[in-house]
Amino acid sequence: MLILFSKRESEICPQLVTNTSAGERVNQVESTGRLPPSPGKPFPEWPTSAHCFNMSTWKVVDSRVAGISKASISPSTWKVLNILQSREFQAYLVGGCVRDLLLKKTPKDFDVITSATLDEVKREFHRVIVVGRQFPICRVYIKGSIVEVSSFETTRKNAKERKTIISPEMASDCDSNSLIRWKNCLQRDFTINSLFYDPSSNTIYDYVDGIKDAIILRGLRIAARLGLVFSKETAQAIRDFSSSVTTLDKSRLMMEMNSMMAYGAAGPSILLLQKFKLLEILLPIHDAYVSLQMTSESGLLASMLMKLLFCADKFLSADRPSECSLWLGLLAFHLALLLHPQDALVVWTFASILYHGEWKTAVGFARESASARVRFVPELRSHSENEADDLLLEKVSRLASLVKSSIRAFVDANALAALNAKYCGASRSGLVFVSPKMGNTVAEIFSVLTPGIRSHATTGRKARGVDYELLKRGNPDEVRLVLGKIIIDAMNSGGVAKGKEEEPADLKAPTSLYSLFRC
Fold it and tell me: Where is the Poly A polymerase head domain (predicted)?
């Protein structure tokens, strides 16, 4: 993680807290009045007064203004909160569930933290099991669910003995409950997991700008879907803090990316991610491609990637989403073409088999479609050979293998680093946020495009319309059908207008991706 700083009135104050040796950092904060330096990062000298805590940045937010719906809180969680608070204990939702609520998602589980000790929690509920040795918590079994309850007291006992220095200014400005919450949030892994939410009072306590880290991606998603334009101030704030998305865990990044890509706004989302320098973090190879296409003669919107995404958007919407394997499959397909440009006939046949599901029909459609000239650089070679069926089948199977291999760049950090070093220079890095399991799911989509492809056929599908319920569940046959249609539509949109069939001389030979992508 990174430490971000902002200067306010000649005072440098922390905006994010790293998870490096959390206990030691809290010890040093309380004993010295400052955060210790992060390894490898020089730390500026701070004044030792309580103002270095910059309590002016501590926020108390109305959850209704933040858009949280209490209906998303489970009845069992409400019961736990109400019982603890009725006994005059402080009790809050904390961690990932608050993050999910802010992002308008229904949390999978809820964590509660309370001022009650674990023994006091056990006395309040009929069935409680304490788990964990170093950091014990209570698992409360209630209303058929499990709610995990931790204690502020446990955090205090696990911290080393230390002398807490609180200046008169801090003592007068800060109540004891705020100090307890603040100390606890410093020991959490990510800022977005350091929020405390009391739904009974509609209050969110934010001591480390955790809300800001979560709303960057959410803001881009909403803007992409609705075609909104950010104010100058908001746009600059997103640029300034774009790197804070690296503090989100992989599953959260995946969820946010899926929210942008699977609901009919993939094209605008990629454009916004690139504009605000988030694409270079999330999809660095595609970011290099987008940057290159923006300077090309035809322009970014005429590029194959954008054609694919905008064609995908025509099939999807907020009430007709796809499972993430669709857009991941599109990105993997496009990456394979970047690394290994193909003849247009091979791509036509590849897409046609995915869509039609039967070799004879698919190859006939592909040969007819390939009669029109399509130009995408660097993905397609300048011309298509009229291959015999056996050789064409071999090339299509080879492309399917290349697509499956390209998936590694989305799930394997080492594979991504190797591609970055080869095509974009060592200075460009990126995050891997796709799980190996999802990578295997995407690979399965292309498993039918094997040397035995002649026998492949969809079953039980007479109409070629999209079954959106199956698509939402990630049914492989449905994903193949839609993926094939998207590629076909994108290829059709890349046709060269009459009178421009003769391509420039510099495009007639396959273009080296290395020379294109050296950035």
Answer: 91-213
